[in-house]
């Protein structure tokens, strides 16, 4: 399926929607910059991870362990052994929620709570989220959103704004070792295979804890919590959805399977990971074996009862087409192809956003 094929809007409608989206993005990004500036003045690193007393605490509470979903048991003993790694026992946890910004259609909150996994880096053991909450009453769907490898928050905030103005709550979750979760000179997922596996497993546990937090929020329909990820966030979203089994709808943007192949290509975006692995003398096959517990394809068969939409680029060097197709085939996912490369998908953002909003729209659950 090509980008210019089905699911099209009329040109006039697209122009109108585009104007409204761009106007809204200007509002939300300006607000985000103001929040970050305020955090800097108060001594915080960013709106995420800010612990400043200058922001009034909106709410402090506890999420009971029963809000967690159980991980469905697998009939495959090997797969079940991997699933057991993600089930560390559920427990009550406390959270903190602070109002960052009010808009006519939604409010934005800063949320933090302890990670479900304790790493060796203290700063990494707190999960930070940006929660876009609808102002209206009534039950509504929600989406957990994961960003890309570079950690930039611009695109996630654009996606969140677009979904939030369409009646969908959004929780942007900061991945382990990114943003305020950096510490001890560690940033991102580069490093040894063991560290990569640990970080990704922690990300999956944190998404599941974020889902438990979301399910407890007023107005959120616990049976309509979706998951959306871009690039690295898409890989982790595919993995998490396969492990968890409870996300009814998922959107994966420029994501796919075969993590070892993806991280060992010659694409500039993964050169840090590739260089680290090569310096350790680790081959692609060795890396594939070491990363099997976090490989989306290992759990993709568990997605066949989930409505998965994939948005991929035909000329992507980071997530090659065959990696995307492999995941789509195994998960029985719908895949929409855009004739561009990984970053060139930004030129098709209007259409990608329309498809994403439509996939998560309340009427489709």
Describe what you observe in this structure.
This protein has a single domain, classed as Alpha/Beta hydrolase fold, catalytic domain (Rossmann fold). The protein has about 375 residues and is an alpha/beta fold. It has helices at about 10-40, 75-85, 155-165, 195-215, 230-245, 260-265, 270-280, 285-290, 295-300, 320-330, 350-360, and strands spanning about 60-65, 95-100, 105-115, 125-135, 140-145, 170-175, 220-230, 250-255, 305-315, 335-340.
Query: What would you call the shape?
Result: globular
CATH topology: Rossmann fold
Looking across the biggest beta sheet, what order are the strands in?
1-2-3-4-6-5-7-8-9-10
Largest beta sheet, briefly? 10 strands, mixed
CATH second-level architecture:
3-Layer(aba) Sandwich
CATH superfamily: Alpha/Beta hydrolase fold, catalytic domain
Structural class: alpha/beta
Distinct helical segment count: 11
Q: What sequence of helices (H) and strands (E) makes up the elements? A: HEHEEEEHEHEHEHHHHEHEH
Q: Percent of residues in beta strands?
A: 15-25%
Radius of gyration: 19 Å
Could you tell me the mean pLDDT? Answer: 85
CATH hierarchy class name:
Alpha Beta
Distance between the termini: 23 Å
């Amino acid at each position: 399926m090509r980008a210019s094929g089905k699911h099209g809007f009329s040109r006039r409608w697209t122009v109108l929607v585009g104007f409204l989206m761009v106007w809204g993005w200007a509002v939300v990004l300006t607000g985000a910059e103001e929040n970050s500036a305020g955090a800097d003045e108060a001594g915080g690193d960013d709106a995420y991870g800010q612990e400043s007393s200058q922001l009034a605490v909106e709410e402090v509470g506890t999420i009971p362990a029963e809000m967690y979903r159980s991980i469905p048991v697998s009939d495959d003993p090997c797969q079940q052994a991997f699933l057991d790694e993600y089930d560390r026992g559920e427990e009550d946890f406390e959270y903190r929620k602070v109002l960052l910004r009010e808009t006519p259609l939604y409010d934005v909150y800063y949320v933090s709570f302890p990670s479900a996994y304790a790493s060796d880096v203290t700063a990494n053991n707190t999960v930070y989220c940006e929660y876009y909450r609808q102002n209206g009453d009534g039950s509504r769907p929600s989406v957990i959103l994961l960003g890309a490898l570079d950690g930039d928050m611009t695109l996630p905030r654009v996606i969140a704004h677009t979904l939030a103005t369409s009646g969908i709550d959004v929780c942007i979750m900061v991945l382990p070792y990114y943003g305020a979760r950096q510490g001890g000179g560690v940033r991102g997922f580069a490093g040894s295979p063991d560290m990569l596996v640990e970080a990704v497993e922690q990300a999956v546990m944190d998404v599941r804890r974020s889902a438990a937090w979301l399910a407890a929020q007023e107005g959120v329909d616990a049976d309509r919590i979706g998951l959306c990820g871009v690039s690295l966030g898409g890989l982790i979203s595919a993995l998490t959805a396969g492990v968890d089994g409870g996300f009814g709808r998922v959107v994966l943007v420029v994501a796919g399977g075969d993590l070892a192949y993806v991280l060992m290509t010659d694409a500039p975006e993964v050169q840090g990971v590739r260089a680290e692995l090569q310096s350790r003398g680790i081959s692609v096959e060795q890396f594939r074996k070491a990363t099997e517990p976090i490989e989306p394809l290992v759990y993709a068969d568990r997605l066949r009862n989930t409505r998965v939409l994939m948005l991929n680029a035909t000329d992507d060097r980071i997530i090659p087409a065959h990696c995307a197709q492999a995941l789509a085939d195994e998960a029985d996912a719908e895949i929409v192809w855009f004739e561009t490369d990984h970053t060139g998908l930004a030129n098709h953002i209007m259409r990608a956003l329309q498809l994403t909003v439509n996939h998560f729209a309340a009427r489709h659950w």
